[in-house]
Each structure stands twice: as structure tokens, then as C-alpha cells.
Amino acid sequence: MAGIILTGDRPTGRLHVGHYVGSLRRRVELQNSGKYDEIYIMIADAQALTDNAKNPSKVRENILEVALDYLAVGLDPEKSTLFIQSQVPELTELSFYYMNLVTVPRLQRNPTVKAELAMRDFKSEGIPVGFFTYPISQAADITAFRATTVPVGEDQEPMLEQCREIVRSFNNTYGETLTEPDIMLPDNAACLRLPGIDGKAKMSKSLGNCIYLAEEPEEIRKKVMSMFTDPDHLRVEDPGKTEGNPVFIYLEAFSKPEYFAEFCPDYKDLSEMKAHYERGGLGDVKVKKFLNSCLQAELEPIRNRRKEFQKDIGYVYEVLRKGSEVAERKAAQTLADVKAAMKIDYFADSSFIEAQTEKYREGQQ
Fold it and tell me: What is the pTM of this model?
């Protein structure tokens, strides 16, 4: 066995194809590989509340949306523990203790925090402390389950590095207690950070440039056909750029040899299609139609499984309830070790109580 996996998503909306190629697809592969002792998949509702505190119903409703997407892509409750972050109170306590190991300037330097702040408007009321400190919360999530591996997109690398810093600081201060995790990035470079259909840096729910896993075929087709492409490729005969072209980035992430054989037999693989586009003579419409076929083939079984799970919502919540109970037991073990290392396990440390008793007994003699 290779260790323990922890990863998850904020329930701020349905999951999209960026989540799928960036992490979800890999999670299913890892789950089915049989190489890991434990796999924990977290719906990070407490983290979502850091910038949705005044709209908790949004988070509450989207927990189900995320859970349905998890099950639809193939995450199996018999192989992976699916749980809700807020139902594991030990995570909050660990966060509080770790806060003493991180400075404000260090949080301000975190590139992921900077990027997330740039996407939100906190000017009128200021930055919520919970949002500002979410790298610490994320470190608590990871270390609570003694995760050795965290499969995420590259935008989370600064968060993992900060987690490792917290682990090293804690272990140096209190003794070897916490496990230092490694990041697992997608093998395919195109999956590291899938751009939005508008060509902007990242597919994001807040920017409205997503293709969702649960979308119907016609909506997917419309979005694909409207995708941003090379703005200088005005005529079919014009040479076109494939590097940085969102349509080709998506094809890097989704196309397979069998899809070329089935949907676009003019080319044996993507390299042939790209070469034709670059020298001219291949139009955007044909490329987009092929991408649409690839996405439809990939997403249809996911969409169909989701519709089946939607017929038994009680089962979905039972999966989350049982998973949260398993997760809490695991986190409680880590918290007990942390408190023992920090010498704040007062009632569990019988030797300390005996020593104090003896100390005062001797003082009375």
C-alpha cells in the first residue's frame, strides 16, 4: 500500500470539467488502483462558508450537488470515505492550534490566497479572518487524516507548501507527530489548469465560463461551438495557433485515440490535427465539432449515473453521514496525538496527574 489520500472541493456550485480533468478523474483511478490504505474525499462546506457566511443556504444546497457529482464520476463509498467537513469538529480545533505556528505576513505571501482574493470583492466589509486563514484550515484537513498524498490542481501547490511548513514547525516544536504530505498533480499538462470557454485563465463558476458535468448535450454543444479560439484564424486556409488555444487545450485533456477513429477518422491522433491547423486548411468549426463529440462521449455516462443517484437522495445523505462518522474517528485519533504532543491532554495523561499528586504530597511533609 502507498499511503493515505485526502482531497476535496468547496460546495459553491456544481462541479465542472475543470474539476474532472484536474482531480476527479484521477481520484477514481487512484481509488480503483487498490494501492492506497485509505482515501478521504471531503466536501469543504466550512471553508466555503468563509466567503459565503451570509448565504449559508447556497452552501447547504450545493453539498448535495457535489455529492451527486462525486458518485456520478465513479467515487465508490465502499472504497473511498466521502464526508462533510463541518461534521468533523476536530478539524476546527486543529486549525486553532496551527494558527500559532503561522504569521500574518506568511499568509499574505501565499499566491493562492492572493489569487482567490483577486477574484472576490471584499472591499466594502474587509477580508473575513476565516477566508484569510484558510491555508491553515486546509493544513488541518490534510494532517487530520495523516494524508501522505494530496491530488490537486497546480493552483493548490502554494497551499500544500504552507501545509508542509506547518507540519515541520509543529514537529520541530512539539516532537514528531504530524505527517508531511506530497502533492500529486495531473500527469497531463493540459489538465493542470483548464481555461474557461472564454479563453480566460481558469474555468471558474464565478466567471460563468464553465462546462458542468451534469449539463445536457445541447447546452454542452452550444458552449463548445461558442468557445474562444485563435483570433487570427479568420479563414479556413489561414495558419492557426494551437498553443494557448482553448479548443486544443481541451482536446489535449479529453481526446483519445478511439475518439479519432470514431468521430474524426481524417486524423489518426491529435498531433496530426494540430499540424493541419497550424499550416492552414482546417477550420475551427470542424475542430469544435470533434471536441463536442469527445466531451459528449466522456460526459454522457456521468450524466446518466447522476440521474440514477438523484432518484434516491436519502441514500446520498446516508453515504455522507456514514463517511463523516468514519472521518471523525480518524481525525479524533490525530487530535489526541496533537494534544499529547502539546502537553494539553490533561485528563488523559495519568502519569502527569500522578506526578502532580506526588509533588504536592511531598510538599506537605
Answer: 0.91
